[in-house]
Amino acid sequence: MNKNLISIIVPMHNNSQESIRRLSRSINRQSLTQLEVVLIDDASEISLINNIDIFFNPYIKIVKYRFKENMGAGAARAKGIELASGFLIAMHDSDDFWKKDKLKKQVEEMKEFKSDIVTTDHIRINANGKKFIKTPSLSKGCFKIKNPVVNSSAVIKAEVAKKELYPLIRRRQDYAYWAMLANKKYNFHNVKEYLVYYDASKNDTLSRKWYVKNIYYNFLAHRFAGQNFVFSIFFVIANVLERVFRR
């Protein structure tokens, strides 16, 4: 494990060249330069991963892996964590974007607050292009109702990420992972500055059928996180009610 290197895990599936350019701009502009990008292609129909190195600064280490079959984002992140060689692991979904001091400020506050996982405030961009500044609540019990962590905002110690297996469920695997770590009493900290642009446009246009299926995956997430059957059902119902009243 390289004690100066930060590994950035990026799951990919059918990405356009433009989305790859945007991803590379997000990473290339970081003020910290000892970076490793672990790109996991989840069996794209037309894969651009072989020639992707040209988009990144030459000092950035590139690690590439391609699944032969579509395995889902959970499996892609799990493989990325396995291949990562840095002392810290940062999650970066390919449709989101970082501000230039994002990683630098997280490393500083991780040391200051002796945290295992550090997130940041983020700007949520919806399907209409409207932007909302969001501050995640990381108070005790916050993960029981919903997932407060935007995946692209999270940096985690590699020793924790490699010890605690990433869930392989098709959806809500990020919720399951962060909730599980919270239940195991790992220390979360949030940088109170918006350093991530989170593209929520796809979520805003999803069908009602998708949300019905998501209820099942929320149940699986709670079970993975360590809740028993009864409490998992209770928290799923609470999440549905929270969404209804929020509207």
Task: Indicate the topology.
Elements: E1 2-12, H1 17-28, E2 35-41, E3 61-66, H2 73-83, E4 86-91, E5 97-98, H3 102-113, E6 117-125, E7 131-134, E8 155-157, H4 158-163, H5 173-183, E9 188-199, H6 201-204, H7 208-225, H8 229-246
Parallel strand pairs: 1-2, 1-4, 2-3, 6-9
Antiparallel strand pairs: 4-8, 5-9, 6-7, 6-8
Walk me through what this model shows.
By secondary structure, the protein is of the alpha/beta class. It has a single domain (2-202), classed as Spore Coat Polysaccharide Biosynthesis Protein SpsA, Chain A (Alpha-Beta Complex). It is 37% helix and 24% strand. It has 8 helices and 9 strands. The protein has helices at 17-28, 73-83, 102-113, 158-163, 173-183, 201-204, 208-225, 229-246, and strands spanning 2-12, 35-41, 61-66, 86-91, 97-98, 117-125, 131-134, 155-157, 188-199. Strands 1, 2, 3, 4, 5, 6, 7, 8 and 9 form a 9-stranded mixed β-sheet that branches. Strand 1, helix 1 (17-28) and strand 2 form a beta-alpha-beta unit. Helix 5 (173-183) packs parallel to helix 7 (208-225) and helix 7 (208-225) packs antiparallel against helix 8 (229-246). The model has no long low-confidence stretch (mean pLDDT 87).
